[in-house]
Design goal:
The structure holds 2 protein chains of 2 kinds. By secondary structure, chain A is mostly helical. Chain A contains 19 helices and no strands. The longest helix of chain A is centred in the middle third of the chain and has 36 residues, at 256-291. Chain A is globular. In chain B, strands 1-2 form a two-stranded antiparallel ribbon. Classes of the chains: A mainly alpha, B mainly alpha. At the A-B interface, α1, α3, α4, α6 and α7 of A face α1 of B.
């Protein structure tokens, strides 16, 4: 039995490795006929070389042309406008709601007798409400909004069936409200990331189809031959997430240890095969678009994509290292976790070199500042994740607040920052108006950066000390609790700054949308004819 | 790679491959696990208590998976021998957990077998450990002028005692306690069962 399992384990790794080697060979020998010219798909003819961003405020910049308002794209953007705006409003509301729950949960860890009169507000439920509101409310809907806006542009054709996503938004939000209500009153499926009762998950699944079908139809009707790398990430995520969601939610199928493996297969793949593609895909579009130059090495992006698919899909069991699961299974996930260096390096080289060669744009465009910072955080979060999965490191960090810090580095510092940047770039195009208070973008950036830095450093340091204390048999368990308290307070402080940043972001977004019809100034760079065409659009 | 359908098929294939390894194979390998002697299904009250444990989210602070002595001193802390898949055959949903903001609980029933202790601790953890950051659960209890027949009175130090009357446990508190007391996997594990847990630390550097 053990021999055959070893064989299977080795074969999984070898198959992944051979697949990757084949892919690299195919790319190197131009079997796939993909080259650097395909990276220009994000631009319209003649557009490459010009920076393009509505958040490049102020004067005296290098390449200061104001931003190009691409009239030829009005027709492409138009059908996506309403669903995208609806999704953004909902996402911003969920971000604020999720932050409130996050703050309460964080404070409760060092004020355990605060708000204890009702079970609705006990830590175990508030924490769950925070996770679900942020993951399925903010991150998923912001990601879908960006996808609905970006994919038609990448495919050079308008969004098809654009009424379906409007129904999708309503259904998704109704299901989410029902789900969070259920969790807050004690109806939960009891699995991390899968707390929403499966009956409500059915509605979420249907809502998801209302987003997916139009995107797939649009992809099939595209007017460019090449699918730009952003499209690979988005389209693959559209295949992955429904399967994950379906299998993990099958009622009465799973129990005991096999259920734990399904749980972590799902929970880690939500990050790897859903939120990561949404974030990386967006960064692959917005970085070159804002700078006006194609990505550094387009073929490398292909390797990065398929390596992500091959390796990330099998990392989940590193959450059960040292646990009651078969050794081969744990080893498989540890190996694949470490192999994640391959796709992450590919993305890192591509995105960071492109930004690094154009630092003027980083200083000039606030949207790019968010997206590029988020991209760097992706690299850091992934490297940290790979190292954390090594057994010796995991022995210290597992079961501690360190893991929480790591999760936020990925889900927050990476995905959320990319989404903020994408939204800052998109909304002026959607509304035809500049952001009303440009200085708020900068304020938002610094609030969330400083807040997150505090948050992350506190949990990382506190978590490491907590883990070391637990491993030292000479120290009582109480030590591992008491020593974390100042760090938990630090986390609350950082979380508070981040939450204020989210309020600034949401308030600014609502102001911008409120002004949409109020007839404020037209976006800079727009001629009067273009403004008229926009008004009629 | 430049057509939508092949992209879908490949993406699907890769996930199916991962699912085979992470979901199907562990299921096939573990499903035949025999129920250990000394483990019995949860009683109705224990299962109800388990449901409270689930819906109050206790799992977010308490793991239920003691590590092996090769890796960590969990056993020396009194948290029990390394657990095996057989210890969880009746668990739905699983509650392995990934945090130890509080201690591991897989054997808390064997370690702390007193109903009174658990009731006091649930009502106010700081009545027992001044360093504890566990939430208090006053909503699982009632304050009464005096105990009626059948009431279970919670034993409290003066500081946490109400000025008048007594604190009595609601059914939920009693059921939750029943569940906690049922957490006892101190029966011996078998070599076959041990084979199904992560032994990646065995004899690393000659053991500890």
């Amino acid at each position: 039995m053990l021999g055959s399992i070893g064989l299977v384990l080795t074969s999984s790794f070898l198959i992944s490795l051979v697949a990757l080697a084949f892919l690299i060979w195919a790319v190197a020998n131009q079997q796939l006929r993909i080259g650097q010219q395909d990276a220009l798909t994000v631009f319209d003819p003649g557009e490459a070389g010009e920076p393009d961003d509505p958040t490049a405020f102020g004067n005296g910049h290098v390449h200061s042309n104001g931003h190009r308002f691409d009239v030829e794209r009005l027709g492409i953007d138009k059908p996506s406008r309403i669903p995208v705006l609806l999704l953004l409003v909902a996402a911003a509301v969920w971000l604020v709601v999720g932050s409130v729950f996050g703050m309460i949960a964080s404070l409760k860890l060092h004020l355990p007798d605060w708000l204890n009169a009702s079970e609705l507000l006990t830590f175990g439920r508030v924490r769950t409400l925070h996770l679900n509101a942020v993951a399925y409310g903010w991150l998923s809907m912001a990601g879908i909004a960006v996808a609905l806006w970006t994919l038609p542009r990448v495919f050079h054709t308008p969004l098809r069936l654009s009424k379906l996503p409007v129904v999708g938004v309503l259904l998704w939000n109704a299901a989410l409200i029902a789900g969070l209500f259920a969790v807050s009153t004690g109806s939960t499926d009891g699995l991390e990331w899968l707390e929403i009762p499966w009956r409500i998950d059915v509605v979420l699944g249907v809502a998801g189809a209302f987003f997916a079908v139009p995107l797939v139809v649009t992809a099939l009707k595209r007017e460019v031959d090449h699918i730009y790398v952003t499209g690979w990430y988005y389209l693959a995520a559209l295949v992955w997430f429904p399967i994950l969601f379906l299998i993990a939610n099958l009622p009465a199928m799973h129990s005991g240890v096999p259920q734990a493996t399904v749980n972590w297969w799902y929970a880690h793949n939500v990050l790897g095969l859903w939120l990561t593609p949404l974030g990386v895909g967006a960064a692959y579009y917005f970085i070159p678009k804002i700078i006006g130059k194609p990505i550094y090495s387009y073929t490398l992006s292909l390797v990065g994509f398929w390596a992500l698919a091959l390796f990330y899909s099998q990392v989940g069991i590193h959450h059960l290292i040292g646990g009651p699961v078969p050794t081969w299974l744990v080893t498989l996930s540890v190996v694949h976790s470490v192999m994640m260096f391959v796709p992450v390096l590919a993305v890192a080289i591509n995105q960071h070199v492109t930004v690094g060669r154009n630092m003027w744009a980083f200083r000039q465009s606030l949207a790019l500042r968010f997206v590029a910072t988020g991209a760097v955080m992706y690299t850091l979060a992934s490297f940290q994740g790979s190292i954390e999965a090594i057994r010796s490191v995991n022995t210290v960090t597992h079961f501690t607040h360190y893991t929480v810090g790591h999760a936020h580095l990925g889900a927050y510092a990476f995905t959320s920052l990319v989404m903020f940047g994408a939204i800052y770039h998109m909304v002026p195009r959607l509304t035809g108006r500049d952001w009303p208070f440009p200085s708020l973008l900068s304020l938002h950036y610094w609030l969330v950066i400083v807040g997150f830095a505090l948050y992350f450093v506190a949990l990382t340091a506190g978590g490491l000390l907590q883990g070391l204390a637990m491993l030292d048999v000479a120290r009582p368990f109480a030590d591992s609790v008491t020593l974390t308290i100042p760090y938990l307070q630090g986390r609350s402080l950082g979380g508070a700054l981040m939450s204020v940043g989210h309020l600034v972001f949401a308030a600014h977004l609502f102001l911008a949308l409120g002004r949409m019809r109020a007839g404020a100034s037209s976006p800079r760079g727009l001629t009067s004819t273009e403004t008229e065409r926009f008004a009629g659009a | 790679m430049n057509r939508v359908i092949p992209l879908f098929i490949l993406a699907f294939g890769i996930l199916a491959f991962a699912t085979l390894f992470l979901v199907v194979m562990p299921f096939l390998q573990v499903r035949g696990t025999a129920v250990p002697e000394g483990l019995r299904p949860y009683s109705v009250a224990e299962q109800r208590g388990r449901d409270h444990y689930v819906n109050l989210g206790c799992v977010y602070c308490h793991s239920q998976q003691p590590r092996s002595p090769d890796q960590a001193p969990d056993q020396a802390r009194g948290w029990g021998r390394p657990s095996t898949p057989a210890d969880y055959v009746f668990d739905r949903p699983h509650l392995l957990g990934t945090m130890r903001t509080g201690p591991d609980l897989l054997n808390v029933g064997a370690r702390l077998p007193s109903v009174a202790w658990h009731l006091t601790h649930l009502y106010q953890p700081r009545a027992i450990f001044d360093w504890s950051i566990m939430p208090s659960y006053p909503f699982l209890f009632d304050a009464k002028d005096k105990a009626e027949p059948g009431d279970v009175v919670v034993d409290l130090p003066p500081r946490y005692r109400p000025e008048h009357g007594v604190v009595v446990a609601r059914p939920a508190a009693l059921e939750l306690t029943q569940y906690l007391l049922s957490l006892d996997r101190t029966y011996p594990s078998t070599p076959d069962a041990e084979d199904l847990r992560d032994q990646g630390y065995t004899n690393v550097g000659g053991g500890r």
